[in-house]
């Protein structure tokens, strides 16, 4: 307590410099907390939007590794030329059986899809579309298409055999409206008439202009793929099991199964790099604040040289002298950290109330702020660490001063 009282007296005697240094630490901690809250909030918001928009696991009608050629098993040859494999419709056959086998052990919702390319025609205008055949009540369990609907309803596909849900931008390009009848033509030349029962808007141009939903049976007829699908989408009750479920489903069915983490592997790596940059910047801010502490402690060491000589003459060891000036740095750091936490909470709370509008199609939203005690603990730890280092350097110099030289006026 004696050492702490001496340190507090030194700090209090230079009140102006102490306030400036404390303010520097407070600003560093405050802005670090606000930046971390905003960065993590934006990351969590993006991940939530991503996870809601895509399946947790998707089983595709393809193999992860190329299938072995039948001739390879029969002949021992280096290479084959001119082989003509048997024509085979690509897709997952017997989807009901496949989903039933998964339902025995997977906790979640399933939706089957059949996708293909088609040309949408209305009033002499043509647009190339990706046509997705779905079972509406199942699709709504694994996707957020209901939230994107702007007119009509997605559930109308259940009651309309040849219903069609398209993007609002595609309808505008064609000049079509809700309730109009359009024609879809597959790559095989088969044409079928559909009625527009819903319009959606996702904010993604490629989807709003080139994506359409229709009942699965109607799409199977149009694409000439009866009782065939090309993907199974799974929304899990526990998203952390996505990789394990994908691996087991692939072994069980033989088709490629992709978890949401594997599908967005590059994005996960980008988040790791972004977080590293964020914490590097936070650390740099607090290091800069530490220079202010170093400056004031060094000044105190210089001014209190005679006091140091008296203390050492009274029998204070070098370790105690060093602790006094380290404590001075820590006192400033603690005061700055506490004030910085209050400032960081205030900034974060204010940023959480900021409203902005990106486009006229998107409702007013707020900045995504994530409040976490980890941000405060980490910022305070870095602040105290930099404060201790800033106080330690001049403290070691103070501990090595010779009291005889100081008293004689050698310094």
From TrEMBL:
Name of the protein this chain belongs to: Lipoprotein-releasing system transmembrane protein LolE
Keywords in alphabetical order: Cell membrane, Lipoprotein, Membrane, Transmembrane, Transmembrane helix
Top-rank taxon, per record: Bacteria
Localization of this protein: Cell membrane
Annotated MacB-like periplasmic core domain residues: 18-251
Family membership noted in the UniProt record: Belongs to the ABC-4 integral membrane protein family. LolC/E subfamily.
Domain ABC3 transporter permease C-terminal positions: 281-403
InterPro entries recorded: ABC3_permease_C, Lipoprotein-release_system, MacB_PCD
GO biological process, one term: lipoprotein localization to outer membrane
Upper lineage: Bacteria, Pseudomonadati, Pseudomonadota, Alphaproteobacteria, Hyphomicrobiales
A Pfam entry, by short name: FtsX
Chief place of localization: membrane
Record membrane topology: Multi-pass membrane protein
């Amino acid at each position: 307590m004696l050492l702490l009282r001496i340190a507090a007296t030194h700090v209090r005697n230079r009140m102006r410099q102490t306030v400036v240094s404390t303010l520097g630490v407070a600003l560093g901690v405050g802005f670090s907390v606000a930046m971390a809250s905003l960065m993590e909030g934006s990351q969590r918001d993006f991940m939530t939007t991503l996870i809601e928009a895509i399946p947790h696991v998707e089983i595709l009608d393809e193999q992860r590794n190329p299938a072995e050629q039948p001739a390879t098993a029969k002949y021992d040859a280096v290479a084959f030329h001119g082989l003509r494999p048997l024509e085979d419709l690509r897709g997952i056959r017997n989807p009901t059986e496949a989903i039933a086998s998964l339902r025995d052990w997977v906790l979640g919702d399933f939706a089957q899809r059949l996708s293909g390319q088609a040309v949408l025609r209305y009033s002499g205008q043509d647009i190339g579309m990706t046509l997705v055949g779905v079972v509406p009540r199942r699709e709504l369990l694994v996707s957020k298409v209901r939230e994107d609907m702007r007119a009509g309803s997605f559930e109308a596909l259940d009651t309309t055999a040849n219903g069609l849900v398209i993007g609002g931008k595609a309808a505008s390009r064609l000049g079509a409206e809700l309730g109009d009848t359009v024609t879809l033509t597959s790559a095989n030349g088969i044409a079928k008439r559909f009625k527009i029962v819903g319009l959606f808007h996702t904010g993604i141009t490629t989807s709003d202009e080139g994506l359409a939903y229709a009942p699965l049976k109607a799409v199977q007829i149009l694409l000439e793929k009866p009782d065939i699908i090309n993907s199974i989408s799974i929304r899990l009750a526990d998203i952390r099991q996505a990789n394990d479920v994908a691996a087991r489903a692939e072994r069980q069915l033989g088709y490629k199964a992709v978890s949401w983490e594997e599908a967005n592997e590059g994005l996960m790596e980008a988040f790791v790099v972004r977080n590293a940059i964020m914490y590097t910047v936070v650390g740099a801010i607090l290091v800069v604040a530490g220079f202010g502490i170093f400056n004031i402690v060094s000044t105190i060491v210089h001014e209190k040289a005679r006091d140091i000589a008296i203390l050492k003459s009274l029998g204070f060891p070098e370790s105690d002298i060093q602790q006094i000036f380290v404590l001075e740095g820590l006192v400033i750091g603690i005061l700055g950290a506490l004030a910085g936490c209050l400032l960081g909470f205030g900034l974060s709370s204010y940023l959480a109330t900021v409203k902005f509008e990106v486009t006229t199609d998107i409702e007013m939203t707020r900045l995504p702020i994530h409040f976490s005690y980890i941000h405060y603990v980490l910022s305070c730890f870095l602040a105290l660490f930099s404060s201790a280092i800033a106080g330690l350097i001049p403290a070691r110099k103070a501990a090595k001063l010779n009291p005889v030289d100081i008293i004689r006026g050698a310094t």
